[in-house]
Amino acid sequence: MNFRQVRKKIKTISNVAKITKAMQMIAAVKMKRAIAQALEGKLYRKTLDDILREVLSQVDGSLTVDIPLLRTNTASKTLYILITSSKGLCGGFNVNVLKHLSANTDFKNAHFITIEKKGGAFLRRVGASIIADFSVVDAGVDIISAVFKVAEQGYLEGIYGDVKIVYNDFVSSFKYVPVITSLLPVLSVDSLRLEETAKETSLAHYLIEPSPNEILPTLIKDVLHEKIRSAILDSAAAEQSARMMAMKQATDAASDLIVGLTLLSNKLRQQSITYELLDIISAQTV
């Protein structure tokens, strides 16, 4: 490699570094917005979940017979709602969640609802069954009702014994963890009553009007909608965090390459000057 080739390579890498730096800054701005969206509803979702637990623990178990979402199914198949990303350049964001899914899933007894493109592409390669694909719709949380409707219909028809959500859980700006959480079935009244009995303190007791059978179906659906919303928002925040870190690593790697190539360029330039001086001295000697 001669001096001109090295200088050309330095210029090319410098241009790439400018691009990755810009992408890092864009991802940082998007991450900040995504984190705000993910965090602002956490208290509401936790309170809603606590209210559901408290109400279910207080009602008579016989009243829940008419609430379909509280029934358990014996079906062997499991429905997974897989949340990935539609774009790349985000490090191991998609790879980690897909590895976690593969290690904990029997694809023969599983059906999938996919959100964003990468998960759908992976499932098609492994021959998994996709019953609904929301990859072509970049609607964010606007698809929650449609996703829940498909999952609810399959569960109430007895096709699936479980409905689970697979996504990257946002922990901090530099950390995210792939998780599999249960959406359906909702915890039974008996198990919730045992939880309340084991607690030393309990939440406030509620006066339920007009009746649990009229209030609980709506409350349960709201809680399940919020679980899907939380997973989508956490995944979006984790994606931007992963992209920001990946672009920072790319920028740092480019900077290291530029330093190394600059040293090589200086060495080649000095070598060229030395050879020219030797030629001049040799010519004068002759």
What does this structure look like?
It is a single chain. α3 links the parallel β1 and β2. The protein has helices at 3-40, 42-58, 93-103, 117-126, 144-156, 189-198, 212-285; strands spanning 78-83, 110-115, 129-133, 162-172, 175-184. 60% of the residues lie in helices and 13% in strands. The protein is built from seven helices and five strands; from the N terminus they run ααβαβαβαββαα. The chain has one domain: Pyruvate Kinase, Chain: A, domain 1 (3-Layer(aba) Sandwich). It has a five-stranded mixed beta sheet, with helices on both faces.
Q: Mind telling me the C-alpha Rg?
A: 28 Å
The CATH architecture category equals 3-Layer(aba) Sandwich
CATH superfamily: ATP synthase, F1 complex, gamma subunit
The percentage helix is 55-70%
Shape: elongated
As for the number of domains, it is 1
Poorly predicted parts:
196-203
| Count of strand segments | 5
**Which fold does the CATH topology refer to?**
Pyruvate Kinase, Chain: A, domain 1
Strand order of the largest sheet: 3-2-1-4-5
Number of helices: 7
Order of helices and strands: HHEHEHEHEEHH
> What percent strand?
5-15%
User: Structural class, from helix and strand content?
Assistant: alpha/beta
Main beta sheet: strand number and arrangement? Answer: 5 strands, mixed
Average pLDDT, rounded to a whole number, is: 85
Name the CATH class.
Answer: Alpha Beta
What distance lies between the first and last C-alpha atoms, to the nearest angstrom? 31 Å
